[in-house]
Amino acid sequence: MEWGKADSGQATVEFLLAVPLILALGWGVWGIALAGRTAELAGVGARAGARAAALGKSPREAIVEALPASVAKSASVVERDGRVTVRLPVPSAGFNSILGTVQASAGFPVQR
């Protein structure tokens, strides 16, 4: 038996089997990054809304100004007892769907 004859094409087959796994791993990492970014934006929005509420202004307007327009339009805002809670949907990586939601709350003492 000649060296290499029995192994011809093996590297190609292994590569073709590895590519979907690598792509799935990359897609999962991207999804985690999207969730983290969305959580960060929820915190930014909650703090901006709480600052506005403490100063007697509209929390919703402050949140819209603090967040990117694409994110601000889907924000759910609740103000209760001086605390502002912002809930944002986590987008899916590559699909037009929602993976879940993240929320953040913040509050500041009322300034008079």
Structure, described:
This protein has one domain (10-107). The radius of gyration is 23 Å and the shape is rod-shaped. A hairpin with a 6-residue loop joins strand 2 and strand 3. The chain has helices at 10-54, 59-66, 69-72, and strands at residues 76-80, 83-91, 98-107. It has 3 helices and 3 strands, in the order αααβββ. The chain is 51% helix and 21% strand. By secondary structure, it is α+β, with helices and mostly antiparallel strands. Helix 1 (10-54) packs antiparallel against helix 2.
Characteristic key phrases:
rod-shaped; 3-stranded antiparallel beta sheet; alpha+beta; 112 residues; 3 strands
Average the pLDDT over all residues and give the rounded result: 88
Helix content, binned percent: 40-55%
Number of strands: 3
Roughly how many Å is the radius of gyration?
23 Å
The overall number of domains is 1
Derived from helix and strand composition plus strand pairing, the structural class reads alpha+beta
Summed up:
With 112 residues, this protein is an alpha+beta fold.
Write the layout of secondary structure elements.
Blueprint: H1 10-54, H2 59-66, H3 69-72, E1 76-80, E2 83-91, E3 98-107
Helix pairs in contact: 1-2
